[in-house]
From TrEMBL:
Organism: Aerosakkonema funiforme FACHB-1375
Cellular compartments annotated: Cytoplasm
Family: Belongs to the AB hydrolase superfamily. ABHD14 family.
Molecular-function annotations in GO: hydrolase activity
Alphabetically ordered keywords of this record: Cytoplasm, Hydrolase
Stored Pfam families: Abhydrolase_6
A GO CC term attached to the entry: cytoplasm
Listed name of the protein: Alpha/beta hydrolase
Domain AB hydrolase-1: 30-96
Family annotation (InterPro entries): AB_hydrolase_1, AB_hydrolase_fold
């Protein structure tokens, strides 16, 4: 059965921010960001939101400011995510962050890791800028990369593993930078397993 996926808007930092949501409001939540060539719609199109709702999670995919149907903001990227989590009443979600959205997720993890149950960086940009600040952060983390990523090489994932003691790495073979598009089933399997592990404890 296909779960209902609702398109909604919320005011964040004075801007209209669009998001898609599936699953029950009061269940454990998973928050999706997206890369520069994509939007929240991507997670609907490849079946991720529906799959998470079937697994009884609340899945929320946000159009980051200036992308998809969201307006631009003037505030800081890290504080934007903090407000999203508070306004949408997401209680310690697992955060999924591909590519460009690393500009939002990495400063957020540095300053507010206690607000999350887990972190899934999918070849995000900016890791090398934040390695020193991420040092020792205990947040359960699953770095997912495509073996053929030419934009953010797999070696960058190892830099994350060096500084974050609870980080693991998964490499999806024959997949590129947006590895979830090429190896969707495998990506989903690792994501569900990680969410089950993190959210069963929270």
């Amino acid at each position: 059965m296909t779960a209902a996926i609702n398109s909604k808007f919320v005011k964040i930092q004075g801007a209209n921010i669009h998001y898609l949501e599936s699953g029950e409001q009061n269940t454990k939540s998973v928050l999706f960001l997206h890369g520069a060539s994509f939007s929240s719609q991507t997670w609907k199109d490849i079946g991720t939101l529906n799959l998470l709702a079937e697994k009884e999670y609340r899945a929320v995919a946000v159009d980051v400011p200036g992308y998809g149907n969201s307006e631009r903001i003037s505030g800081s990227p890290g504080e934007f995510l903090l407000e999203v989590i508070e306004v949408l009443n997401l209680n310690k979600p697992v955060l999924i962050s591909p590519s460009m959205s690393g500009n939002y997720s990495l400063p957020f993890v540095v300053n507010h890791s206690e607000k999350l149950s887990g972190f899934v960086p999918v070849a995000p940009v900016g890791i090398m800028m934040f390695t020193q600040q991420l040092q020792g952060i205990q947040l359960p983390t699953l770095a997912i990369w495509g073996s053929n990523d030419t934009i953010v090489p797999v070696a960058i994932a190892d830099e994350l593993l060096k500084v974050m003691p609870n980080a693991d790495k998964i490499v999806l073979e024959n997949a590129g930078h947006a590895c979830y598009m090429r190896a969707t089933d495998e990506f989903h399997q690792h994501l569900i397993n990680f969410c089950d592990r993190c959210l069963s404890k929270s």
